[in-house]
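Notes from the 1:1 (GR / supervisor)

We went over the backlog. Supervisor wanted to see one worked example end to end before approving the batch request, so GR pasted a single chain during the call. The sequence is below; no edits were made to it. Supervisor asked that the structure be written out right there so they could see what the output format looks like.
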Amino acid sequence: MPDSLKPGLMGSANDTSTPDAFAHSMAANIEAAFSELLQDAGLPALTDDNSKESRDRRRLFVAIAQGVVRHLVQHQDSFTIFVPHTGNDVTVHPTIAVEGPL
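Structure output shown during the call:
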């Protein structure tokens, strides 16, 4: 089975580094893209720790990622994959698998 979408969670505030619940998630990718845009503009990169400031910022990224995944799940019937086939054409309606709660 293919990988599930991992929107991301905050994890424990007691972690000294990036919580596993956040790492390798959609929210973590949003954070990385934002950090790259800051660097491209000559601004400092984001810190990769679990400080209060990082958690405050990550809360927004987690909310965005969870909202996007929730929307995709709620509207997964909107996705139709048409597979041309010799003889009979096939239409597939995919199921979106999500890792963890939304």
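Supervisor's comment: The two ends are 21 Å apart (CA to CA).
Batch request approved.
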